[in-house]
Specification:
The chain is of the alpha/beta class and 201 residues long. It is 31% helix and 19% strand. It has a single domain (10-200), classed as Rossmann fold. Strands 3-2-1-4-5-7-6 form a seven-stranded mixed beta sheet, with helices on one face. It starts with 16 loop residues before the first helix and ends with a strand.
Length: 201
């Protein structure tokens, strides 16, 4: 059974990790600790990325939509988009958006290389490419994995970010920074340097 908020009770979901996970079935909840960003991380990232009203932020590898949903709560004047290649995770994200009543989030079922990143202002990246590395924890075995894909995706994202205009912001979490091109300046770190805040010069 899911918790369905009454009017004005949206804050319930953001009082704790446990409350937030009530938006999802148990199998999804069990993946949270490894594969979805903690709320404390999301709040810091959302404050940095969504500071400007109307900003469009893309979560690359959005999973079940936790970053977008929580960010939309913390920064309601911005718009949050998620792209995810597993359709069933996108379905969970869309259902969670309906249950929570969030209206300024969108989820797209695609490989992120099929999107034009120029349509977005800023980006969040919790290293979804790591799944392609041999000893990494994987969400499931529903897609093909290849270490070469890690390098391909990282290089592709780096090239796309390099094309973005000055002032573009990126937040990375648990990343090796392979996807960050030289033109980006590291402005701050948090969470023992696992969370990094970048701006294109």
């Amino acid at each position: 059974m899911y918790f369905v908020p009454t009017s004005g009770k949206l804050a319930h979901f953001f009082e704790s990790e446990e409350n937030f996970l009530q938006l999802y079935p148990v199998p999804v909840q069990q993946l949270d600790a490894m594969h979805w960003s903690p709320l404390a991380v999301i709040e810091l990232a959302a404050d940095f990325l969504g500071a400007k009203k109307g900003a469009k932020i893309l979560d690359i590898g959005s999973g079940v939509g936790k970053f977008c949903l929580a960010s939309a709560y913390y920064r309601p004047a911005a718009f949050f988009y998620g792209v995810e290649q597993r359709k069933y995770l996108v379905d969970h994200a869309r259902l969670a958006a309906e249950r929570s009543g969030m209206t300024h989030v969108r989820f797209v079922h695609k490989d992120f290389t099929q999107l034009d990143l120029a349509h977005f202002d800023h980006f969040y990246f919790y290293n979804s490419f790591f799944e392609n590395l041999a000893k990494s924890d994987k969400i499931d075995e529903s897609i093909a994995f290849d270490p070469g894909l890690y390098h391909y995706y990282s290089n592709y994202l780096s090239k796309q970010l390099d094309k973005m205009p000055p002032g573009t912001k990126v937040v990375t979490y648990c990343s090796w920074d392979d996807e960050i091109p030289p033109g980006y300046e590291l402005k701050a770190t948090d969470m023992n340097h696992l969370l990094k805040f970048w701006i294109k010069r």
